[in-house]
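Subject: Sanity check before I submit

Could someone independently write out the structure tokens for this chain? I want to compare against mine line by line before I put it in a report. The sequence has 121 residues.
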Amino acid sequence: MADYNTVKANLAKQTAKNQTYGKAKEQMVAQQLVPMGPPPTTVDAAKPVAKRETPAPFFRATERPNEPITAGMDFGPGVSSVGAGVPRQYTNDIAMMEIKEILKYFPNDDLFDLVSRYGGG
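---
Independent answer below. Compare away.
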């Protein structure tokens, strides 16, 4: 197998075809200024691959016995979604408020119909 320097020396510099005037020369100069990188390395087949940790059994005992199953939800016992750090969801009310603001600055029939139909006036 040829060594890296031999391969590097034999690589022909290439440019794209059908370019505007002067672009091919710019590409050739750029290829001369930036040295070729080393060839890609091969994966060593003899090196052992780290195995993943096996997942815990699905029907194991709970790791949080004092926490209700509804913790993080906006119903039932436990902390709410805000208390659990879940970001607020984009609701239709917020979207409709934004559409009404857009309608103020950019009035058009389509937005007016949308607000009239779903936005309560």
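---
OP: Matches mine. For the report I'm noting this point. The mean pLDDT is 77.
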